[in-house]
Structures are given as C-alpha cells and as structure tokens.
Amino acid sequence: MSSSLLTKVKHLAKAHHTEVIALRRHLHAHPELSFEEFNTSKYIAAKLKEYNIPFTEGIVKTGIVALLEGKNPSKKTIALRADMDALAITEQNDVPYKSKNEGLMHACGHDVHTASLLGTAKILSELRAEWEGTIKFIFQPGEEKAPGGASLMIKEGVLENPTPLSIFGQHVFPSMEAGKVGFRPGMYMASTDEMYITVKGKGGHAAMPAEYNNPLLIGAKILQELYAYFMDEKTKKIPAIPTVLAFGRFTANGSTNVIPGEVNLAGTFRTMDEKWRAEAKKIVKQIATTTAESMGGSAEVKIMDGYPFLVNDADLTHSSKRAAEEFLGKENVEELPLRMTAEDFAFYTLHVPGCFYRLGTGNQSKGIVSGVHTPTFDIDENALETGVGLMTWLALAELSK
User: Fold this and answer.
1) Which residue among 32, 83, 85, 378 is the active-site one?
2) Is 223 helix (H, G, I), strand (E, B) or coil?
3) Whether residue 330 sits in one domain with residue 278
4) Do the bridges between strand 55-59 and strand 63-69 make them parallel or antiparallel, or are there none, so unpaired?
5) Could you give the number of structural domains in the chain?
6) Segment (H or E) for 69
7) In 10 A of CB 88, how many CB atoms?
8) Positive or negative CA dihedral for 315, 321, 325, 330?
9) Is 225 a catalytic residue?
10) Among 198, 294, 359, 372, which is least packed, fewest CB within 10 Å?
11) How do residues 307-340 score in pLDDT, each as one tens digit?
C-alpha cells in the first residue's frame, strides 16, 4: 500500500482522537453486564447512524453488525470485532468518567475495544473510495460470561452473508506501554472450563466426631489429590501441553461447633489441546469421586464447558505483524508469550482465520499500571490513537492482499 494512504490513516487517527476518547469515556461511565448491554447497544447504533454506516441490531439481543462496502464490494470480506460488556466490580478510580452504575465497571477494557472499533469504522468510511471489498464490524455482547457472545452470534449467522475470509480482534494489555502492540502466531490463549464439585459427608455437632463424617476433610483431600495429579503426574506424562488447574472457592455452611453435611468447591481448568482437555475432565471426575468414596462420602462433579483455546492463524498474524511494524515502527511491535487466560474470540477462529493481538495501554510514569479485572484498572488514552489507527491499517492491508 502507498505511503500516502498510511499518512492519511495516521492523520485521521490523530484528528479523531478527541472524539474516540469521548466515546470511550461515555462507555466507561455507563457499564453494563454480559448480555444486558442494552444502552451500550443503543449508543453504538446512534453513532453508526451518525457515521452513515448501515447496520443490523438485535443479534443475541444486544449485538450489532455493521457492513461497510468499498469499491468492488464482492472482491473480499473481512471482519473486525469488539466486545462491549463490563464486570461486576466497584470502581475505585477517581476520574471524571468513573462508572455511574454502582457495582459495575469496564475493568477489562471493553469500552476501549468498542470505542476503537467505532473510530476505525468512521475512518474506513471516510476512506471508502480508497479500498476494495467489504468490512464487517462486529459489536459483540457477553464475552465475560459462558457460553460467550461469540458462540451465540455465530449461531445467529454473524459469519454469513457475506462470510469473512479473516477476522481481527484487539485487546488491551496494561503491562505493555501505550504506543506498543503485540502479536503471537499459532497457539496463544487457553481453553477454559468451569468445575463445580459438591462433596457430601455427614454433619453433626463438632464435639462428637464419632457421629459425623466431616465433608471439609473430604473436600481438602480431593483438592490435594487433584493438585498432586495435575502438578506432578501430568507434568511427567505430557509436559509439552500447557495446563492450569485451580480452585478459588471452597464453601461450607458450618460454624465453630457445627459440621455441615456438604461443602462446595469451584475452580477452573485450562489447557491448549482438545484431546487432553476431554481426558482431563474425566480424570477430575474420577479423582473426586473415588477420593470421596474412599473416605465414606460422595462427590458430584459438574463441568461447564467454556471457550476453546485460541489459535492465531500463522500467515494472517505474520502479515499483520509486518503491517503493524510498517505503521508503528519495529521498535513498537512485540512478540507475545503464551497466556493461560481465555477469550471467546477463539470461537471465531474455529470458522475463519483470525488474528487476536494486544494493544499496550499502560504508562509506568503516569502510574497507570493496574491489571484488568481490578477496581483501579485504567488506560493511558494515547493508546486509543494507536488502537484506531492500527486496526484501520490492518484492515486495509488485509483487503489489499
């Protein structure tokens, strides 16, 4: 692509920066939970109307898909996706755009993703005489809640009529300085499944141990056995497959002198291999049930399937990284390590080649260092200019191939 077009994109990203900041601040101040993004959806629809970009709303209730045609629209179709839901976290930042919805916060940067995609749509609309093909803009609900808005939007036909040949997703990265971005071809993020174990024993008065079978001890033993297997045995047998087993909840409705009849455990299992993923679920159930039975109790295991592991298409990601280096300079484009976090963008990559990359949003000198899913998460808003400009450039680069 021409250097003049690159200059135009950079100019427009800078020219619209103030507007994109305003978009992000409005969204940040009005967060909504997964699949409840009704006002967010209305706001996005109003902006798309303002930009004169046609769209369809009401997909999975709150999702929106906009379709922008350039010259020769049937030549090629690509998709750009942003998620738009928030989290049940009470914001602790003292900023003018602090959340107005008590107990809710855009603590994972989806306000950034949505504002960036709106800004990208506006620039690509203004440049539509300079590119060929069609671009789908996917504003997706419910990334934070299983079964994931991506899977539901796919079921409702978001990747059809027309079908994109590739899809891009961008995500904030607070540990990376604003102005930088990161890519990783191939395996990048883990699958995720939720595990719930109900352990039953026999309750009673704490002073009479002969009359009860304490389910807390059974639950503790189950945890020990599970951790021993997945941290030791798994490492010996299949060390090449990244795996995380972790339990974050162990609840028992007892008291100082009351032994309850049951306890409940909740945790997560993450990996990057579907065969091992299926096998591991069986192992979890077997260890939990046999351990409980050996101690005179019982265990019921429920596993909620989550998101698949995310694989970035190698060719698409390599070409996108080169385009990013052209746009930002090689010094501002980094190689990303594997992550055991999960993303429902992975569902899209099961159907079309995808590139999920990271946008640096931190700033050590300004003290903007808090991680996602924390009550003090925020961004250096200079990252919005980078996010909008780069996503625009990646779309143009892909369409020109």
Assistant:
1) 85
2) helix
3) no
4) antiparallel
5) 2
6) strand 63-69
7) 12
8) negative
9) no
10) 294
11) 999 999 999 999 999 999 999 999 999 999 999 9
35 shares its domain with 156:
yes
Domain boundary among 305, 326, 361: 305
**183/329 same-domain check:** yes
User: Residue 206 belongs to a domain with what CATH number?
Assistant: 3.30.70.360
Beta strands in 70-132 (DSSP E): 77-83
Query: Rounded to the nearest 10 degrees, what angle do helices 38-50 and 17-29 cross at?
Result: 160
Rounded Cα distance between 28 and 41, Å, is 14
DSSP 162: S
3-state helix, strand, coil in the chain (%, to 5): 40, 25, 35
Residue 385 backbone dihedrals phi, psi, to 5 degrees? -65, -40
User: Among residues 272, 289, 305, which one ends one of the domains?
Assistant: 305
- Of the candidates 32, 111, 143, 273, the residue annotated as catalytic is 143
Q: Are residues 175 and 205 in the same domain?
A: no
Q: Which long-range contacts (CB under 8 A, 24 or more apart) does 129-132 make?
A: 129/70, 129/71, 130/5, 130/8, 130/70, 130/396, 131/70, 131/71, 131/396, 131/399, 131/400, 132/70, 132/71, 132/72, 132/73, 132/75, 132/76, 132/399, 132/400
**CA atoms of 126 and 119, how far apart (whole Å):** 11
Q: Is 193 one of the catalytic residues?
A: no
Regarding whether 50 and 172 lie in a shared domain, the answer is yes
Q: How many residues does the chain have?
A: 401
| Residue 141 and residue 84 in contact, taking contact as beta carbons nearer than 8 Å | yes
106 and 174 fall within a common domain:
yes
- Measuring CA to CA, how many Å separate 70 from each of 5, 67, 76, 126, 352? 15, 10, 10, 10, 21
Which residue segment(s) compose the domain that 281 sits in?
A: 193-305
Mean pLDDT, all residues of the chain:
97
Q: How confident is the model at residue 235 (pLDDT cuts 50, 70, 90)?
A: confident
- Residue 253, burial from CB neighbour count under 10 angstroms (0-12, 13-18, 19+): exposed
CATH code assigned at 395: 3.40.630.10
